[in-house]
Design a protein that fits this description.
Elements (H helix, E strand, L loop, with lengths): L9 E6 L7 H14 L3 E5 L3 H6 L2 E3 L27 H13 L4 E6 L1 H23 L5 H6 L4 E6 L15 H22 L2 E6 L6 H10 L3 E3 L12 H13 L5 E6 L12 H12 L3 E5 L11 H18 L7 E6 L2 E6 H16 L3 H7 L2 H19 L23 E7 L6 H14 L3 E5 L2 H11 L8 E3 L29 H10 L2 E8 L1 H12 L11 E5 L15 H18 L5 E7 L6 H10 L3 E3 L7 H16 L9 E7 L9 H11 L5 E6 L11 H22 L8 H7 L2 E7 L2 E6 L3 H4 E2 L4 E2 L5 H12 L9
Parallel strand pairs: 1-2, 1-4, 4-5, 5-10, 6-8, 6-9, 7-8, 12-13, 12-15, 15-16, 16-21, 17-19, 17-20, 18-19
Antiparallel strand pairs: 2-3, 10-11, 13-14, 21-22, 23-24
Helix pairs in contact: 1-10, 1-25, 3-4, 4-11, 6-7, 7-13, 7-22, 8-9, 10-19, 11-12, 14-22, 15-16, 18-19, 19-25
The structure holds adenosine-5'-diphosphate.
The site of adenosine-5'-diphosphate has 17 residues, from helix 4.
Length: 788
């Protein structure tokens, strides 16, 4: 049963609890979408504290301009003791009712959402009492007779139920991973060990993922205490460090601030230092990262989830739902769940941890968190069981001692343009294949390198292929490009299938995983199609997407695309700063060939007004619109509040040969009529460079994990088995992806029907319509810009 709509939507937005990077993008998205829908919007300063003090200011479009690149929250956050009492909440209710605020958007943690929900439950009683006491009028009561509430989570801890990620977690992880990457080189130089303490309170997401993506030797986090009820964690930690130090001069232990042992006793990072120094005699240093983890410029991933959740929150709020809802993310997509269910799950997780029911706590964490913990444990258990100095597998084709024991060789190669994170994927996949009892073989130089193995035979194979040894994979996590080296040569086109077939036989390969972009996918598809001619290709074949352009099917994101996006957003942030106080239009050209992913996401995450995509034909009307926006921007009487430039992001192929960047710039310049000037910026290869971001590394891990399980499953099927199921396993050929946060395996047979080969992009692009619509609503001002 739906109740009547409020007379006028007056929405109060507040950020509460600990601050986190990306909250500003959320405030911007909520404000502008709500304004566009005709609502009035108020910023409630400092969360419940401002609600209690009655500190609320109306927001206009221009008030939230230029805030995306700022850390923290521009509307303030605080903890408010008064709000915990009913009397305190009544005072807050009065201030809301006096302003006619009848809807709340709460951006905070589970504590803040609980507080807001409590206010909602008490709302009718508060209004009745306030009217009876003469503190509000009957008309004021009628305006906000019913309170609407929607929430979503901003916290670096990633401890909220119902979402894969909370706002701020990616920026915090970036700070942590940058710090650990820095510590690696000094640790190596001095042969030191570093113990790094991370935030996260009782949530181990930051620490376990940071340890995984930096190749750290050991991690200690609350949901799965180290060691076991029978094995002291100190023994386990030292055992692993001893083994690793025989192979590597640097070691890192990551400790969550809320870590406990199996008896619930706190594990102090300083104690880890003492234990390592005493037992191993290794010089060990403690680095407590502290509040730097909260600060800095929000990374694009946080801006993205904040914008998406903010936009969805207003949709949900104004759909007049009957109970409060919580917006979360499933991978790249928003999801909506009852707020009370999410809060209850958080409370239950806290209780499980307090009662030392660790397995329950682990099971209650979100999917991405659980996946990280599973992966960590798998790798850690294997490392514990390793002999101190495992022998590298011999590569000579005749020397296959392991074959008799069922050990199979899995070839891993990278193909296409190098993408940051490829090496992290190679390293994790290799380690995981070892945990499954198989031999990972790294192929150098893509398919060209593989073909070389056919000619060198026996001696000299090492120039084309190498066994990927456990400890050598440690440093793969933070390498840019591809450590195995790659190129764009396509199997079946630039490299003959005959030579590949011979090479696979010479190397005695049982499964092949190709990590790369379009060329990699085409190569594997060519091999699949040629199986009737080449029985050597009747083996499990897999493709893992890795390209900064994000132009391959089967996965929402590809490894490396976040580095490209981050470089692009960094550049646009700088371009904007360079134009502060000026009237300037910037036209920024970005990579992506015929796929507009980088341009679209770049616009969404940097606040650029216009994204020109190759997917859409560029018409004169679009250019006119870009001009109108820029004129409107600089026309407004309120432009002192806003950043000094308008930004158009143009994909390198958008507009074809007609509307090149130079043509656009000249046209805009002449049509600016001296009102603003126009500059261009071509980012070029800067977009491809740099170390893999946390998101790239995380994707690399997830895809490697999903792929390894699939490969191991297929290899477990008896080669002599001739049944239909066994044949299907022997001939598996799939794209490994992550869609809406879940691993998905797409049969390679579908490749042709999923892509536009001429334009080298998927026919269906999940981001195209929705993101363009959101960006248009948020970034493009109305005509009366600044006055809404
Ligand atoms: P978070 O929202 O990040 O979990 P806190 O738990 O510190 O952060 O909560 C932030 C604020 O929310 C508190 O200062 C308080 O004002 C309010 N709050 C938290 N829990 C409750 C509760 N159970 N009842 C009422 N208000 C609460």
């Amino acid at each position: 049963m739906s109740s009547p709509l409020p007379h006028q939507w007056r929405i109060g937005i507040f950020t509460s609890g600990g601050d986190s990077c990306g909250m500003n993008s959320a405030v911007r998205a909520c404000t502008r979408i709500a304004l566009r829908r005709g609502a009035q919007v108020f910023a409630i300063k400092d969360g419940f504290a401002g609600m209690h003090r009655g500190e609320m200011v109306e927001l206009t479009w221009a008030d939230v301009a230029g805030i995306m690149a700022r850390g923290g929250t521009v509307i303030g956050t605080a903890r408010c003791a008064e709000f915990r009492s009913e009397a305190g909440r009544r005072v807050a209710a009065m201030h809301l009712a006096v302003r006619g605020i009848n809807a709340l958007v709460c951006i905070g943690g589970d504590g803040s959402l609980t507080g807001a929900d409590t206010l909602l439950r008490e709302w009718p009683a508060h209004l009745a009492a306030l009217e009876a006491e003469g503190k509000i009028t009957a008309a004021q009561r009628a305006q906000c007779d019913r309170l609407h509430l929607v929430g979503f989570t901003g916290t670096i801890d990633n401890d909220m139920a119902g979402t894969d990620a909370t706002i701020g977690v990616w920026s915090a992880l970036t700070r942590i991973v940058d710090a650990i990457d820095c510590l690696q080189s000094t640790a190596e130089s001095h042969r030191r060990c570093f113990v790094v303490e991370c935030m996260g309170r009782a949530s181990g997401f930051l620490s376990v993922l940071a340890a995984l993506v930096t190749g750290s030797e050991y991690a200690i986090f609350p949901e799965a205490p180290p060691g076991s009820p029978r094995v002291d964690w100190r023994d386990e930690m030292c055992d692993i460090l001893r083994k690793c130090r025989a192979k590597s001069s640097a070691s890192v232990v990551v400790v969550c601030e809320g870590a406990v042992d199996w008896a619930g006793k706190r594990i102090d990072a300083a104690e880890c230092v003492r234990v390592i120094e005493e037992r191993l005699g290794v010089e060990t240093r403690l680095t407590v990262l502290g509040h730097v983890q909260r600060g800095g410029v929000p990374v694009p991933a946080d801006r993205y989830i904040a914008t998406m959740m903010g936009a969805r929150a207003i949709d949900v709020l104004m759909s007049d739902m009957s109970e409060p809802q919580c917006v979360g993310m499933a991978g790249e997509t928003t999801v909506v769940l009852p707020l009370r269910q999410c809060v209850a799950q958080c409370v239950e997780t806290g209780r499980a941890l307090k009662e030392l029911r660790f397995a329950d706590a682990e099971a209650l964490r979100c999917g991405s968190h659980r996946e990280c913990m599973r992966l960590w444990k798998r790798l850690n258990d294997y490392q514990l069981a390793l002999p101190a100095a495992p022998a590298a597998a011999p590569l000579h084709s005749l020397d296959r001692r392991g074959a008799a024991l069922g050990v199979k060789r899995v070839a891993i190669l990278t193909c296409g343009a190098p993408a940051p994170g490829m090496s992290a994927c190679v390293g994790t996949l290799a380690r995981l294949m070892l945990t499954h009892g198989h031999e990972p073989i790294g192929i150098r130089d893509g398919f060209v390198g593989l073909a070389r193995a056919a000619t060198v035979r026996g001696g000299g194979i090492e120039s084309a292929a190498e066994p990927l040894e456990w400890f050598a994979m440690r440093d793969m996590m933070h390498l840019g490009g591809s450590a195995l080296s790659c190129n764009r040569d396509v199997a079946g086109k630039d490299v003959t299938l005959d030579s590949i077939a011979v090479a696979l036989a010479v190397l005695d390969i049982s499964a092949l995983v190709v990590i790369g972009g379009f060329e990699g996918f085409q190569s594997v598809d060519n091999m699949r199609r040629a199986r009737d001619r080449f029985p050597q290709f009747a083996m499990p074949l897999f493709c893992i997407p890795a390209t900064i352009s994000c132009n391959v099917p089967g996965s929402d994101l590809s490894i490396g695309c976040d580095r490209g996006l981050t470089n692009l957003v960094d550049a646009v942030d700088k371009v904007k700063q360079s134009a502060v106080g000026m009237r300037r239009m910037f036209c920024v050209e970005v990579m992506g060939r015929f796929c507009g992913y980088l341009a679209m996401l770049g616009a969404l995450c940097s606040g650029a007004e216009i994204a020109l995509l190759p997917e859409n034909p560029l018409r004169l009307a679009d250019l006119q619109a870009a001009l109108d926006v820029t004129h409107a921007r600089f026309d407004t009487a309120f432009n002192d509040k806003i950043n000094g430039c308008a930004v158009v992001i143009k994909n390198e192929c958008a507009g074809g040969d007609v509307f090149t960047l130079d043509v656009l710039v000249n046209l805009f310049e002449s049509e600016s009529k001296g009102h603003f000037d126009v500059r261009k910026s071509v980012l070029g290869h800067l977009q491809q460079g740099g170390l893999p971001t946390v998101v790239d590394r995380f994707y690399a891990l997830r895809l490697a994990l999903a792929c390894s399980q699939r490969v191991a499953g297929a290899l477990a099927v008896d080669a002599a088995d001739d049944s239909a199921e066994a044949n299907a396993a022997h001939n598996l050929c799939e794209i490994v992806g992550v869609v809406k946060g879940e691993p998905v395996f797409t049969p390679m047979e579908k490749f042709d029907s999923l892509v536009n080969k001429a334009l080298r992009r998927p026919k269906e692009q999940w981001w195209l319509k929705e993101l363009a619509a959101i960006n248009e609503t948020i970034a493009l001002p109305n005509k009366d810009y600044g006055r809404q």
